Amino acid sequence: MRATLGGLGAVLALAACATTRGQTDEARLDDAVEQKPLQGKATSSAECGTDPTGDVVVLDGRTGAPMPCLPVTIAARAANCVGGECDGETVFVGRTGPQGHAKLQKAISQSKLVAVAGGYAPSSAVTGAPGKTVELELVPETVFWLKVLDAEGNYLPDVQLTFKVGEEVLAKLTSNGLANIVFSQRQPFAGQAVTVEAAGYAPATITGTEDLGKDGHTLVLRR
Predict the structure, then answer these.
(1) pTM score, two decimals?
(2) Which own/partner contact pairs does 131-134 have at CB distance under 8 Å and 24+ positions apart?
(3) Is the CA virtual torsion 35, 39, 44, 45 positive or negative?
(4) How deeply is 153 buried, as exposed, middle or buried, from its count of CB atoms within 10 A (0-12, 13-18, 19+)?
(5) How many CB atoms are closer than 10 A to CB 169?
(6) What distance in Å separates the CA atoms of residue 163 and residue 219, rounded to the nearest whole number?
(7) E-only strand ranges, 27-122
(8) What is the pLDDT of residues 150-189, one digit of tens each?
């Protein structure tokens, strides 16, 4: 049985990147999605991490902005780890710095870093060249997001995408600076195949999470 993404009739919303549509009964975008971090109250600079730069920078996946003073735990796992069933070790526990950076407790070889923070879905990224800052993007655990890439794995920011079921247009959304599209609900589609169209690319079809890469969030557009 193929995995599906639930709630076809759910309202769709893109954080900061929704494209305005005509005022019709088909409009399903909510431009009032909350963009603020989920900490709840303002955090003073004294409560931030002490490192203005570090091995990792934690970014808001909805806006691309750094997330300062955020309590976060980062673990290192094998670079080829898929899913969460891999051994690892904790390499950072604390708050990010004023610019969203975190300094790991020790140098590590190539690994998959996994960040966990209250109110957000876990986020992972594989370390690159030595000395290169790793970007970890967090989105609220109550939303669903897609990372839009080309066939070579390059980010596709600022690309307008049309989501359709048959001839019915569900939404027109634009990827943000991190090439993300964020929906306000965990299960924006279900039951029927969703076609994604973008100018200059062949239509892509989403029938379930198996069409969205190993992480269930990767949308690849091909020429």
Answers:
(1) 0.76
(2) 133/53, 133/54, 133/55, 133/56, 133/57, 133/101, 134/55, 134/56, 134/57
(3) negative
(4) exposed
(5) 16
(6) 12
(7) 56-60, 71-78, 88-95, 101-102, 111-116
(8) 999 999 999 999 999 999 998 899 999 999 999 887 777 7
